[in-house]
From TrEMBL, chain A:
The keyword rRNA-binding is assigned to this record: no
Transmembrane segments: 12-40, 75-97, 109-129, 149-178, 268-285
Protein name: Carbohydrate ABC transporter membrane protein 1, CUT1 family
Compartments (UniProt record): Cell membrane
Keywords: Cell membrane, Membrane, Transmembrane, Transmembrane helix, Transport
Family matches, as PROSITE patterns: ABC_TM1 (PS50928)
One Gene Ontology CC term in the entry: plasma membrane
Automatic annotation (TrEMBL), chain B:
Transmembrane in keyword set: yes
Family, similarity comment: Belongs to the binding-protein-dependent transport system permease family.
The protein's name in its UniProt record: sn-glycerol-3-phosphate transport system permease protein UgpE
GO cellular component: plasma membrane
Cell membrane recorded as keyword: yes
GO BP annotation list: transmembrane transport
Domain of life: Bacteria
Principal subcellular localization: membrane
Amino acid sequence: MVTHKKRERFWFFLFVFPALISFFIVVIIPFLIGIGYSFVSWDGLSMNPVKFVGMDNYARLFTDVRFGESAQHTVIFTFLSVILINVLGLVLALLVTSRLKVTTIARTMFFMPNLIGGLILGYIWKFILSDAFKAIGTQSGLTGVFFNWLLHPTAALMALVVVITWQMAGYVMIIYITGIQSVPEEVMEAATIDGAGPWRKFFTIELPLIMPSVTICTFYSLSNCFKIYDINLSLTGGGPGTSTEMFAMNIFNEIFSYNNYGYGQAKAILFFLLIAVVAITQVSLTKRREVQL
Amino acid sequence: MTAMTTRKTVRRVILSTLLLLLGLAFLFPLYIMLINSLKNRAELYMSPVALPMGMLWGNYAEAARKMDFMRALGNSLFITIVSVVFIVIFSSMCAWMIARKNDKLSKLVYFIFVATMLIPFQTLMMPLVQMMKWSRQTLGVPVLNTYGGIIFMYIGFGMSLAVFLFHGFVKGIPLSLEEAATLDGCSRGGVFWRIVFPMLKPTIVTVIILDIIWIWNDYLLPSLVLNNKALRTIPLSTSSFFGVFTIQWNQAMAGLTMAIIPVIIFYFCAQKYIIKGVAAGAVK
């Protein structure tokens, strides 16, 4: 009996250990060390002293204008992007679940940008929104729309919204398709017989029934937009000036460009807390709107 | 009657055409990239939207040389494939064991994996860099600038989601087959590899797809771990291409096109699985 128990334990650890150990070394330990770093002042050089400063780093966050601005950019960007991504994604999903023959090809096309990394997408759009737009503007005279977007603070932020929407709409489309296909045919037919028009059918029947997909898609797009880095780096690099610098980039710069290791890490910890709070709030809010058949 | 069917057909054709046009509009940025990769500089600025007058394949040769493209492609392939194989093996083993055991310890392990999914990479990156330095200086184990180092990190970062997905799937398969195998004298390891692992196929495909997309396109982690030019992945060589040279957009577009080609090939080979995998990964 004892040997059996021992053998069981052996198998348990043999199976769980590789996953757990790699995960601990890469996620848990750095996370804990990171909390520790957020209470010190240090420039990252091993010959220089690590000074304990308590909560000073966190207190400093509230008077950091640039960090506050990056928070503002992140919030505006995320708000606009999440709405656009989900509206466009849902519209695309409704289009490609109709009984047309071309829907498979259309799905492939809409999903394509998702496979290409954010860094590369950013570079492609960088050309379009700066030099190509400028050239088109000068030639066509439509300089109100076609100018170098990346030189203008507001336009550059909108450029980021455009690119992330283009990338992610196809992804949430896939999730919405699954939701739409799970709406029972009979319910929709019954509504048609009862004389409901397409808009009415969509808003009163289909939309409430696909709320679980809405929960997933808003969660996914929200947390992705909040953490955006690659596209930010390659499309605008935070510019012009620091007018499009988001949270993730601000943290990276604080640590690795300005060598404020402790202070930057305090930002990183706050960033984690923000993400946790926002994500949990959003999920509990949209979950309440889900209905059961 | 016939009038109605014709009207229906006409409507269908119009809708289909509109949908395809919308799809093409969606891919317009890629068209811009492609056509401008074949122009010379003057032509590119003169008419950025028009088809190229000639085919300047030299742009591609030049970009490939500057990016050291073949090497970057090899690095990306190697790192992605090895990481994904290990993620699948380790996470499926762990998820199966904790799902079947389901005691307090297993529940704790599962909870830790799931709860930490909210931690963004930015929160971990600085301590990770410090640990890499420490491991080389104190332990003598090189992590920075090694394939092993970055692969190990991808395995660690990939665990949460993969364990979560496998755990959900294992919960749904009946125990009877496993019990029968045990009665026939199969060891725990035997049960897993011969009976369970093959049954996990749908989730294995999902995990492979999601992790390939993630690791292949990841920029931030390799930028911290791989400073050595010889180890650069495709995103790294792309960004250095843009950083070092004053931008020659025609060559840059050729470089970007090359960087995208492997992804497009992958998409057309595994399209069905990709769409399914993404849907399954998100819904769970």
